[in-house]
Amino acid sequence: MTTTQEENLPYDVFCKACPSRGTLEHVTGRWGSLTLGALHEGSLRFNELRRRVDGVSEKMLSQTLHALERDGLVHREAQPTNPPRVDYELTVLGHEVAERLLGLIHFVEGRMDDVLEARRRYDGARTN
Fold first, then answer.
1. Is pTM, for the whole model, over 0.70?
2. Any alpha helices (H) in the chain, and if so which ranges?
3. Contacts of 46 (CB under 8 A, 6+ apart)
4. What's residue 1's pLDDT?
5. What percent of the chain has pLDDT over 70?
6. 12: burial class by Cβ within 10 Å (0-12, 13-18, 19+)?
């Protein structure tokens, strides 16, 4: 399928050929959602971001930032200093996406007692 053909199709994330599926994966994947959430707090340098997103490897963060930048959600600003300084921040579109993600994140955090209780019930039923 050529780019022109892709651009003329209605977007449907449930269709495997739809380009929106890749963006959804970038946004909702573990590292993408955490990176967007962290950048919602403000501009961060790579190592600051890596410390904020606890557990992400340098390689995964780099890949995540490239994907989010390509999708127009993150802006990368390289300063011509010695050593080079690179800052990452959300674009306008990235802020919109992060706002929605943070709503979900806060909802999940607020309902974790219910989730943990459901897990206990489930695990208890499976072991009996």
1. yes
2. 3-8, 19-28, 30-40, 46-52, 58-70, 92-110, 112-127
3. 61, 62, 65, 86, 88
4. 44
5. 92
6. exposed
